[in-house]
Amino acid sequence: MYGKAFAPEYRGSLGGLSVNASLEEVLETALTRRREAELQGAALESAHAGLAVAEACRRLGRVAEAEAAWKASYRAARRAGDRGAMAWAVWSGGTLARQRGALALAWRWLSLAAELAERGGDVVARGYSLAGLAETGRIQGDYQAVGELHEKLLAEARRRGEARHTVWALEGIAQMHRNTGSYDTALAMFEEAAAIAGGADDARGRAWALRGIADVLSVRGETGRALALLSEAEATCREMRLVSALAYNHKMRGNVFFRAGRYAEAEACYSGALEEFRAMDEPRGAALARLGWVKARARLGRDTAETAADLDELHRTLGGIGLLHARDMVDKARAELGVLAAG
Protein backbone atom coordinates (compact mmCIF):
# COMPACT_ATOMS: atom_id res chain seq x y z
CA MET A 1 0.00 0.00 0.00
CA TYR A 2 2.83 2.39 0.89
CA GLY A 3 5.89 3.03 -1.22
CA LYS A 4 9.36 3.81 0.01
CA ALA A 5 9.56 7.04 2.00
CA PHE A 6 11.03 10.04 0.25
CA ALA A 7 11.98 13.56 1.31
CA PRO A 8 10.20 16.15 -0.88
CA GLU A 9 12.20 18.94 0.75
CA TYR A 10 15.23 17.61 -1.14
CA ARG A 11 14.47 19.04 -4.55
CA GLY A 12 16.05 19.60 -7.94
CA SER A 13 19.43 17.91 -8.31
CA LEU A 14 19.23 16.91 -4.62
CA GLY A 15 16.07 14.86 -5.20
CA GLY A 16 18.05 11.62 -5.07
CA LEU A 17 19.10 12.12 -1.44
CA SER A 18 17.69 9.48 0.89
CA VAL A 19 15.26 10.41 3.63
CA ASN A 20 17.73 8.61 5.92
CA ALA A 21 20.83 10.50 4.77
CA SER A 22 22.84 11.92 7.66
CA LEU A 23 22.27 15.62 8.13
CA GLU A 24 25.98 16.40 7.77
CA GLU A 25 25.96 14.64 4.40
CA VAL A 26 22.88 16.58 3.31
CA LEU A 27 24.36 19.88 4.47
CA GLU A 28 27.71 19.35 2.74
CA THR A 29 26.08 18.28 -0.52
CA ALA A 30 23.54 21.11 -0.45
CA LEU A 31 26.12 23.80 0.31
CA THR A 32 28.25 22.63 -2.61
CA ARG A 33 25.27 22.58 -4.97
CA ARG A 34 24.11 26.02 -3.82
CA ARG A 35 27.53 27.54 -4.55
CA GLU A 36 27.52 25.94 -8.00
CA ALA A 37 24.00 27.17 -8.73
CA GLU A 38 24.84 30.71 -7.66
CA LEU A 39 27.90 30.76 -9.95
CA GLN A 40 25.75 29.47 -12.80
CA GLY A 41 23.02 32.01 -12.14
CA ALA A 42 20.52 29.14 -11.71
CA ALA A 43 18.03 30.77 -9.33
CA LEU A 44 15.62 27.85 -9.01
CA GLU A 45 18.37 25.32 -8.33
CA SER A 46 19.84 27.75 -5.79
CA ALA A 47 16.42 27.87 -4.09
CA HIS A 48 16.21 24.07 -3.99
CA ALA A 49 19.71 23.72 -2.55
CA GLY A 50 19.09 26.52 -0.06
CA LEU A 51 15.99 24.73 1.21
CA ALA A 52 18.05 21.60 1.91
CA VAL A 53 20.65 23.74 3.70
CA ALA A 54 17.92 25.34 5.82
CA GLU A 55 16.35 22.03 6.78
CA ALA A 56 19.67 20.36 7.62
CA CYS A 57 20.72 23.32 9.77
CA ARG A 58 17.32 23.42 11.50
CA ARG A 59 17.45 19.74 12.40
CA LEU A 60 21.04 20.09 13.58
CA GLY A 61 19.98 22.91 15.90
CA ARG A 62 21.93 25.57 13.99
CA VAL A 63 19.03 27.99 14.03
CA ALA A 64 20.75 31.20 12.91
CA GLU A 65 22.12 29.47 9.82
CA ALA A 66 18.73 27.88 9.16
CA GLU A 67 17.05 31.30 9.35
CA ALA A 68 19.47 32.81 6.85
CA ALA A 69 19.20 29.80 4.53
CA TRP A 70 15.41 29.66 4.22
CA LYS A 71 15.22 33.39 3.53
CA ALA A 72 17.93 33.12 0.86
CA SER A 73 16.02 30.17 -0.64
CA TYR A 74 12.86 32.25 -0.77
CA ARG A 75 14.63 35.15 -2.48
CA ALA A 76 16.11 32.80 -5.08
CA ALA A 77 12.71 31.18 -5.68
CA ARG A 78 11.12 34.60 -6.11
CA ARG A 79 13.77 35.55 -8.67
CA ALA A 80 12.94 32.33 -10.50
CA GLY A 81 9.22 33.13 -10.32
CA ASP A 82 8.44 29.69 -8.87
CA ARG A 83 5.63 29.83 -6.28
CA GLY A 84 6.10 26.18 -5.33
CA ALA A 85 9.74 26.77 -4.38
CA MET A 86 8.70 29.94 -2.55
CA ALA A 87 6.16 27.88 -0.61
CA TRP A 88 8.76 25.30 0.41
CA ALA A 89 11.11 28.03 1.66
CA VAL A 90 8.39 29.68 3.74
CA TRP A 91 7.31 26.25 5.04
CA SER A 92 10.86 25.76 6.31
CA GLY A 93 10.75 29.18 7.97
CA GLY A 94 7.46 28.36 9.64
CA THR A 95 8.76 25.03 10.87
CA LEU A 96 11.84 26.76 12.29
CA ALA A 97 9.65 29.36 14.02
CA ARG A 98 7.63 26.57 15.68
CA GLN A 99 10.83 24.84 16.78
CA ARG A 100 12.00 28.08 18.40
CA GLY A 101 8.70 28.54 20.25
CA ALA A 102 7.45 31.45 18.12
CA LEU A 103 4.09 29.81 17.51
CA ALA A 104 2.22 32.90 16.27
CA LEU A 105 4.97 33.53 13.71
CA ALA A 106 4.92 29.85 12.74
CA TRP A 107 1.20 30.09 12.09
CA ARG A 108 1.74 33.17 9.91
CA TRP A 109 4.52 31.64 7.81
CA LEU A 110 2.83 28.26 7.39
CA SER A 111 -0.44 29.91 6.34
CA LEU A 112 1.46 31.92 3.72
CA ALA A 113 3.25 28.76 2.57
CA ALA A 114 -0.06 26.95 2.10
CA GLU A 115 -1.39 29.89 0.08
CA LEU A 116 1.71 30.06 -2.13
CA ALA A 117 1.63 26.29 -2.68
CA GLU A 118 -2.02 26.41 -3.72
CA ARG A 119 -1.39 29.26 -6.14
CA GLY A 120 1.66 27.45 -7.50
CA GLY A 121 -0.12 24.12 -7.86
CA ASP A 122 2.30 22.26 -5.56
CA VAL A 123 0.06 19.72 -3.83
CA VAL A 124 2.83 18.27 -1.65
CA ALA A 125 4.02 21.67 -0.40
CA ARG A 126 0.43 22.56 0.43
CA GLY A 127 -0.01 19.30 2.33
CA TYR A 128 3.17 19.84 4.32
CA SER A 129 2.17 23.44 5.10
CA LEU A 130 -1.28 22.39 6.33
CA ALA A 131 0.38 19.64 8.34
CA GLY A 132 2.63 22.27 9.90
CA LEU A 133 -0.42 24.33 10.87
CA ALA A 134 -2.05 21.25 12.39
CA GLU A 135 1.08 20.42 14.37
CA THR A 136 1.40 24.00 15.60
CA GLY A 137 -2.18 23.92 16.88
CA ARG A 138 -1.64 20.52 18.47
CA ILE A 139 1.46 21.72 20.30
CA GLN A 140 -0.51 24.68 21.62
CA GLY A 141 -3.07 22.23 22.99
CA ASP A 142 -5.93 23.38 20.76
CA TYR A 143 -7.00 19.85 19.87
CA GLN A 144 -10.56 20.73 18.94
CA ALA A 145 -9.39 23.22 16.31
CA VAL A 146 -6.85 20.96 14.60
CA GLY A 147 -8.14 17.45 15.26
CA GLU A 148 -10.30 17.44 12.14
CA LEU A 149 -7.43 18.76 10.02
CA HIS A 150 -5.14 16.00 11.29
CA GLU A 151 -7.75 13.38 10.34
CA LYS A 152 -8.24 14.93 6.89
CA LEU A 153 -4.50 14.98 6.21
CA LEU A 154 -4.22 11.36 7.37
CA ALA A 155 -6.96 10.30 4.97
CA GLU A 156 -5.28 12.14 2.09
CA ALA A 157 -1.88 10.61 2.89
CA ARG A 158 -3.37 7.10 3.05
CA ARG A 159 -5.17 7.62 -0.25
CA ARG A 160 -1.96 8.67 -1.97
CA GLY A 161 0.11 5.98 -0.27
CA GLU A 162 2.54 8.59 1.13
CA ALA A 163 4.22 6.70 3.94
CA ARG A 164 6.11 9.57 5.53
CA HIS A 165 3.07 11.85 5.72
CA THR A 166 0.86 9.00 6.95
CA VAL A 167 3.35 8.29 9.74
CA TRP A 168 3.43 11.98 10.72
CA ALA A 169 -0.37 12.23 10.86
CA LEU A 170 -0.73 9.00 12.84
CA GLU A 171 1.82 10.19 15.37
CA GLY A 172 0.13 13.57 15.77
CA ILE A 173 -3.32 12.07 16.32
CA ALA A 174 -1.85 9.43 18.63
CA GLN A 175 -0.24 12.17 20.73
CA MET A 176 -3.58 13.90 21.17
CA HIS A 177 -5.19 10.62 22.26
CA ARG A 178 -2.32 9.99 24.66
CA ASN A 179 -2.64 13.47 26.20
CA THR A 180 -6.39 13.05 26.71
CA GLY A 181 -6.03 9.63 28.35
CA SER A 182 -7.06 7.34 25.45
CA TYR A 183 -3.99 5.14 25.87
CA ASP A 184 -5.21 2.08 23.96
CA THR A 185 -6.00 4.16 20.88
CA ALA A 186 -2.73 6.07 21.16
CA LEU A 187 -0.67 2.89 21.46
CA ALA A 188 -2.35 1.29 18.45
CA MET A 189 -1.70 4.38 16.32
CA PHE A 190 1.92 4.73 17.41
CA GLU A 191 2.46 1.03 16.65
CA GLU A 192 0.88 1.41 13.20
CA ALA A 193 3.10 4.41 12.53
CA ALA A 194 6.19 2.44 13.53
CA ALA A 195 5.20 -0.46 11.27
CA ILE A 196 4.54 1.79 8.25
CA ALA A 197 7.76 3.73 8.81
CA GLY A 198 9.73 0.51 9.10
CA GLY A 199 8.25 -0.88 5.90
CA ALA A 200 8.91 2.37 4.04
CA ASP A 201 12.50 2.70 5.35
CA ASP A 202 11.67 5.93 7.17
CA ALA A 203 14.13 5.77 10.06
CA ARG A 204 13.28 9.22 11.42
CA GLY A 205 9.54 8.54 11.48
CA ARG A 206 10.10 5.17 13.15
CA ALA A 207 12.32 6.73 15.84
CA TRP A 208 9.57 9.23 16.75
CA ALA A 209 6.97 6.45 16.76
CA LEU A 210 9.10 4.31 19.09
CA ARG A 211 9.32 7.27 21.45
CA GLY A 212 5.52 7.46 21.48
CA ILE A 213 5.14 3.73 22.14
CA ALA A 214 7.67 3.98 24.97
CA ASP A 215 5.71 6.84 26.52
CA VAL A 216 2.45 4.88 26.64
CA LEU A 217 4.15 1.70 27.88
CA SER A 218 5.82 3.72 30.63
CA VAL A 219 2.48 5.13 31.78
CA ARG A 220 1.35 1.51 32.12
CA GLY A 221 4.39 0.63 34.23
CA GLU A 222 6.33 -1.27 31.55
CA THR A 223 9.59 0.49 32.31
CA GLY A 224 11.99 -2.06 30.84
CA ARG A 225 10.26 -2.25 27.46
CA ALA A 226 9.99 1.54 27.31
CA LEU A 227 13.70 2.04 27.96
CA ALA A 228 14.63 -0.58 25.37
CA LEU A 229 12.55 1.18 22.70
CA LEU A 230 14.09 4.53 23.58
CA SER A 231 17.57 3.03 23.26
CA GLU A 232 16.68 1.70 19.81
CA ALA A 233 15.34 5.11 18.76
CA GLU A 234 18.39 6.86 20.22
CA ALA A 235 20.71 4.79 18.02
CA THR A 236 18.84 6.05 14.95
CA CYS A 237 18.95 9.65 16.17
CA ARG A 238 22.70 9.46 16.71
CA GLU A 239 23.34 7.79 13.37
CA MET A 240 21.37 10.43 11.46
CA ARG A 241 22.45 13.29 13.78
CA LEU A 242 18.83 14.15 14.63
CA VAL A 243 19.74 16.62 17.36
CA SER A 244 16.24 17.75 18.31
CA ALA A 245 14.79 14.24 18.20
CA LEU A 246 17.66 13.02 20.40
CA ALA A 247 16.99 15.71 23.00
CA TYR A 248 13.30 14.78 23.11
CA ASN A 249 14.31 11.14 23.40
CA HIS A 250 16.44 11.97 26.45
CA LYS A 251 13.59 13.99 27.98
CA MET A 252 11.28 11.01 27.50
CA ARG A 253 13.83 8.75 29.18
CA GLY A 254 13.62 11.14 32.12
CA ASN A 255 9.83 10.74 32.11
CA VAL A 256 10.16 6.96 32.16
CA PHE A 257 12.56 7.02 35.10
CA PHE A 258 10.39 9.53 36.97
CA ARG A 259 7.25 7.40 36.60
CA ALA A 260 9.23 4.42 37.90
CA GLY A 261 10.29 6.37 41.00
CA ARG A 262 13.93 6.44 39.88
CA TYR A 263 14.28 10.14 40.57
CA ALA A 264 18.07 10.53 40.54
CA GLU A 265 18.26 8.91 37.09
CA ALA A 266 15.35 11.06 35.94
CA GLU A 267 17.08 14.22 37.15
CA ALA A 268 20.24 13.35 35.22
CA CYS A 269 18.27 12.72 32.01
CA TYR A 270 16.28 15.93 32.33
CA SER A 271 19.43 17.92 33.05
CA GLY A 272 21.16 16.55 29.95
CA ALA A 273 18.12 17.19 27.76
CA LEU A 274 17.85 20.74 29.10
CA GLU A 275 21.42 21.47 28.03
CA GLU A 276 20.73 20.02 24.58
CA PHE A 277 17.60 22.12 24.09
CA ARG A 278 19.32 25.29 25.24
CA ALA A 279 22.23 24.65 22.87
CA MET A 280 19.85 24.57 19.91
CA ASP A 281 17.70 27.48 21.14
CA GLU A 282 14.56 25.37 21.48
CA PRO A 283 12.56 27.01 24.31
CA ARG A 284 9.62 24.59 24.24
CA GLY A 285 11.81 21.55 24.78
CA ALA A 286 13.91 23.41 27.33
CA ALA A 287 10.85 24.38 29.37
CA LEU A 288 9.46 20.84 29.33
CA ALA A 289 12.83 19.36 30.33
CA ARG A 290 13.14 21.89 33.12
CA LEU A 291 9.67 21.01 34.37
CA GLY A 292 10.76 17.38 34.63
CA TRP A 293 13.98 18.42 36.37
CA VAL A 294 12.06 20.51 38.93
CA LYS A 295 9.71 17.61 39.69
CA ALA A 296 12.58 15.13 40.07
CA ARG A 297 14.50 17.50 42.35
CA ALA A 298 11.39 17.99 44.46
CA ARG A 299 11.05 14.24 44.90
CA LEU A 300 14.70 14.16 45.97
CA GLY A 301 13.99 16.62 48.79
CA ARG A 302 14.57 20.06 47.29
CA ASP A 303 13.30 23.06 49.23
CA THR A 304 9.56 23.57 48.64
CA ALA A 305 9.84 27.34 48.22
CA GLU A 306 12.45 26.93 45.46
CA THR A 307 10.24 24.38 43.73
CA ALA A 308 7.23 26.71 43.93
CA ALA A 309 9.23 29.61 42.47
CA ASP A 310 10.45 27.45 39.57
CA LEU A 311 6.94 26.20 38.82
CA ASP A 312 5.62 29.77 38.81
CA GLU A 313 8.32 30.79 36.34
CA LEU A 314 7.60 27.79 34.14
CA HIS A 315 3.89 28.58 34.14
CA ARG A 316 4.69 32.06 32.83
CA THR A 317 7.22 30.78 30.30
CA LEU A 318 4.93 28.14 28.84
CA GLY A 319 2.05 30.58 28.78
CA GLY A 320 4.21 33.08 26.91
CA ILE A 321 5.04 30.45 24.30
CA GLY A 322 1.33 29.60 24.04
CA LEU A 323 1.44 26.00 25.24
CA LEU A 324 -1.94 25.56 26.89
CA HIS A 325 -1.50 21.84 27.56
CA ALA A 326 1.95 22.39 29.06
CA ARG A 327 0.59 25.03 31.44
CA ASP A 328 -1.90 22.43 32.61
CA MET A 329 1.08 20.14 33.23
CA VAL A 330 2.55 22.72 35.60
CA ASP A 331 -0.74 22.91 37.51
CA LYS A 332 -0.78 19.12 37.69
CA ALA A 333 2.81 19.13 38.99
CA ARG A 334 1.81 21.54 41.75
CA ALA A 335 -0.99 19.21 42.78
CA GLU A 336 1.23 16.10 42.66
CA LEU A 337 3.97 17.74 44.72
CA GLY A 338 1.63 19.56 47.10
CA VAL A 339 3.19 22.91 46.19
CA LEU A 340 1.19 26.13 46.14
CA ALA A 341 1.89 28.96 43.72
CA ALA A 342 4.62 31.15 45.20
CA GLY A 343 2.91 34.36 44.06
TrEMBL record:
It holds the Pfam family TPR_12. It comes from the Bacteria. SMART domains: TPR (SM00028). This is Tetratricopeptide repeat protein. The lineage of its organism: Bacteria, Bacillati, Actinomycetota, Actinomycetes, Kitasatosporales.
